[in-house]
Design goal:
It is a single chain. This protein is an alpha/beta fold and 118 residues long. The chain is 47% helix and 19% strand. It contains five helices and five strands; from the N terminus they run βαβαβαβαβα. It has a five-stranded parallel beta sheet with strand order 2-1-3-4-5, with helices on both faces. Helix 2 packs parallel to helix 3. It is globular, with a radius of gyration of 13 Å.
Length: 118
């Protein structure tokens, strides 16, 4: 399984990468939305995990740019953030059917199991 992680904070990105590697995933990581879009087209990952606030865009803007690729594939898109969302952000994520996880409660193994039955 291939996972693309997009998170601008090095330590958080490193922790998420470590969590997925422990779950035996092939992991690629980048720090910006634009780099993530480029990597997405090259790697064609099974799961895309992004922080909500990136340096160059937010997760909803990123999602809108990659929506055609997601619609034409079995890729999964997930937001993982250390910050609490506003009511409007939570509602937007729910309306777009984007799962949101809080970094402290996030588990790569649980995420993989919820999307890919063993």
């Amino acid at each position: 399984m291939k996972v693309l992680i997009i998170h601008e904070h090095y330590n958080a990105r490193k922790g998420i990468v470590r969590d997925f590697r422990r779950a035996r995933a092939e992991v690629y990581a980048t720090s910006s939305g634009e780099a993530g879009i480029s990597a997405l087209h090259e790697l064609l990952p099974d799961i895309i995990v992004t922080d909500f606030y990136l340096d160059d865009m937010n997760a909803f803007e990123f999602y809108e740019q990659i929506k055609p690729v997601l619609a034409a594939s079995a890729m999964r898109f997930v937001i993982v953030s250390a910050l609490r969302f506003t009511l409007f952000e939570r509602e937007d994520a729910r309306n777009l059917k984007i799962p949101v996880y809080y970094l402290g409660a996030f588990s790569a193994k649980q995420l993989i199991k919820s999307y890919f039955a063993e």
